[in-house]
Amino acid sequence: MSRIVSYPSPLTWDEFLALPHETRNAALIDGEVVVNPPDAQHELIVRNLNVVFTEWLRARAGRGEVSTQQPVKINHRRGYQPDFMWYPADRCSPDDQPL
């Protein structure tokens, strides 16, 4: 169940990123912080995705990378922090460069 959390609003994307850690399961929608606390089934799905994708990535080079909790900016008043993301190889940093 989503809920809007009381933060000064509207927030910008940079202000959202500066919020405390509890916004990890939150999104910024039109400057408002919306929290989506995960339930047990959600957590199980995320863990299983991580295991399956990690095995698939290790089976052959060049399949990309997975990441968790990386913020995704849509615009200056919208964004979210997905629980799991897959990046194809052409969207990843070369091995000799930092992310």
Account of the protein in words:
The protein is built from 2 helices and 7 strands; from the N terminus they run E-H-E-E-H-E-E-E-E. The model has no long low-confidence stretch (mean pLDDT 83). By secondary structure, the protein is an alpha+beta fold. The strands form 2 sheets. Strands 1-3-2-6-5 form a 5-stranded antiparallel sheet, with no helix packed on it. A two-stranded antiparallel sheet has the order 4-7. It has helices at 13-17, 40-59; strands spanning 3-4, 26-29, 32-35, 65-67, 72-75, 78-80, 85-87.
Overall structural class, as computed from helix and strand content, comes to alpha+beta
Q: In percent, how much strand structure appears in the residues?
A: 15-25%
Strand element count: 7
Q: Characterize the main sheet.
A: 5 strands, antiparallel
What is the share of helical residues?
A: 25-40%
Secondary structure tally, helices: 2
Strand order of the largest sheet: 1-3-2-6-5
- Tell the overall outline: flat
What is the N-to-C order of secondary-structure elements (H for helix, E for strand)? EHEEHEEEE
Poorly predicted sequence stretches spanning 5 or more consecutive residues: none
For the termini, the CA-CA separation is 33 Å
* CA radius of gyration: 16 Å
Mean pLDDT across all residues, rounded?
A: 83
